[in-house]
Design brief:
Layout lengths: L2 H58 L8 H14 L4 H11 L9 H8 L12 H5 L4 H16 L6 H11 L4 H16 L18 H12 L6 E6 L10 E6 L1 H8 L8 E2 L3 E5 L2 E9 L5 E8 L1
Antiparallel strand pairs: 1-2, 2-6, 3-5, 4-5, 5-6
């Protein structure tokens, strides 16, 4: 064997393991990176639509006949038992169905929704977290729930304040919102001098009773008299009626009218009282004399 053959064999023995080792080091590393990224993206793509459908199914699966406060609270309790993520998505979805369940004026529902937020986790721990909006998505979701309460005229209490403080800390963005509501809403609750809300809140009033309250709002003359007239029904379920508000001045003006003068009714106007739409119209002679105010009902 020549010196050239021995030299070539030594080079071959040294170079082959080194190249094979590099191949072993490179191939698994590349395969691992590709497989992990594909697996994570596949899991996310599978998880997102299923979670959204699952949240909607909490409320859509309930028949319309059984949609009430108990079934809504049961859906919230079922979500809280598993303690998953996605609190913001669940609360936003629940707010879409709150009016379908007819519980948008119930304080306990808003307490249950705000209680979904985890306690202590989102409280600022240092100065920088207090300066900037800590957990902005969660706080904006909390403010959205409080705004829904404000729009529906639901006044918060001390328990609502404590729930928000335990979730986001004291004097945070969402906490300031509930503090302002606690301060201003009791002051403005009875600020309407034309309507005493205690006459309509929490009471099941008939349409004629609502008509009387509405006429008192519109006719502020102390001498105004209210009267209710029932007409002959045209069917078994038809009970026509209309209510009239008439002041002493209007009565005297009507007595002074000539028999040939026609009293025309204006177009129908809308009045919302306790969330219920009422219709009323005004009778006049077409001149300077205003006449009767009618509120035919709902």
């Amino acid at each position: 064997m020549s010196i050239y053959d021995i030299h070539s064999r030594i080079i071959h023995m040294i170079s082959v393991p080194r190249g094979f080792g590099r191949l072993l080091l490179d191939v698994p590393h590349r395969v691992f990176e590709c497989s992990s990224s594909l697996a994570s993206s596949a899991k996310e793509s599978r998880r997102e639509p299923s979670s959204l459908v699952h949240i909607d199914q909490h409320f859509q699966s309930v028949p319309k006949v059984e949609r009430n406060k108990d079934t809504f609270l049961a859906a919230i309790a079922a979500f809280k038992e598993k303690k998953p993520r996605g609190h913001v998505e669940f609360i936003n979805t629940a707010l879409k169905y709150i009016k379908e369940y007819g519980i948008h004026k119930d304080l306990d529902i808003y307490k249950a929704l705000l209680d979904v937020f985890p306690k202590g986790k989102m409280i600022p721990q240092n100065t920088f977290q207090r300066i900037f909006l800590h957990y902005p998505v969660q706080q904006n979701c909390c403010v959205k729930v409080l705004d829904e309460m404000e729009w529906n005229g639901v006044q918060p209490d001390k328990e609502i304040h404590d729930i928000v403080v335990n979730a986001f800390g004291d004097w945070n963005f969402a906490t300031k919102k509930v503090k302002r509501m606690l301060y201003w809403m009791p002051k403005l609750k009875y600020s309407n001098k034309y309507l005493d809300r205690r006459d309509v809140e929490g009471k099941s009033l008939s349409p004629p009773e609502l008509a009387g309250i509405a006429l008192k709002m519109m006719s502020r003359d102390p001498g105004t008299e209210l009267s209710l007239t029932r007409l002959a029904p045209k069917g078994p379920h038809d009970q026509p009626w209309f209510a009239i508000a008439q002041s002493l001045t209007q009565k005297n003006l009507i007595r002074g009218l000539h028999e040939d003068v026609e009293v025309r009714c204006s177009s129908v106007f809308r009045l919302f009282l306790a969330g219920i739409s009422n219709s009323f119209f005004v009778g006049n002679t077409g001149g300077n004399v205003s006449g009767i105010i009618h509120l035919p009902g709902l």
